[in-house]
């Protein structure tokens, strides 16, 4: 498992697609990296591949509920967990804390309140806030994860990245040297896994990081499997 230390990475687990997209957009606007999962099984698969700084788990999900998922995670990790639920009774909150939760937020809630809870938990656990740290070297460029810009080391040329391009690159960086499937990239970027949208974004990103985009040496296709980002060209 790999972890991109410059930004806080949050996993949102909720079976409601509307909630997943809403929280993803809001938290990304606040400077966080956000991945999503629609149920407990998908979340556990994702947790085997990536290290997250904080988890937001919906309680009422089909299959294993959020409390069951939280208990399973807590057996292996002390990652901060915030439970989201429509329940607000004291007994339900006690169950949440008993299931390894660090905080509990009842629906409906204001997104700003969620951010305050996140920041408090990260501070309590001694983790970085949303702000980025050092630049990351990618071939001949340095990626500034705070400004979403590529800076060419030799010439000083600055190339802006779109939000999707930046998130795509950061997901690949966390798995640098390993193949990442189109399915995993689609879910990390909240894109339709059945479309070719990921391929389009990869093509656009290559134009910005490769010396010869038609013959890529950094971001390569693994036929039938996905994509791999190499250490250097």
Structure characterization notes:
The structure is a single chain. The chain has two domains: 9-125, Rossmann fold (3-Layer(aba) Sandwich); 135-229, Winged helix-like DNA-binding domain superfamily/Winged helix DNA-binding domain (Arc Repressor Mutant, subunit A, Orthogonal Bundle), CATH 1.10.10. By secondary structure, the chain is of the alpha/beta class. The protein has helices at 17-29, 40-49, 66-74, 90-98, 111-124, 163-174, 182-189, 197-209, and strands at 9-13, 33-37, 54-58, 81-85, 103-106, 136-138, 141-144, 149-152, 158-160, 179-181, 219-222, 226-229. Helix content is 38%, strand content 21%. A five-stranded parallel beta sheet has the order 2-1-3-4-5, with helices on both faces. Strands 6-7-8-9 form a four-stranded antiparallel beta sheet, with no helix packed on it.
CATH fold-level assignment of the largest domain: Rossmann fold
Q: Domains counted in the coordinates: how many?
A: 2
Give the strand line-up of the largest sheet.
2-1-3-4-5
Overall 3D shape: globular
List keywords for this structure.
233 residues, alpha/beta, Rossmann fold, Arc Repressor Mutant, subunit A, 2 domains, five-stranded parallel sheet, four-stranded antiparallel sheet, globular, disordered N terminus
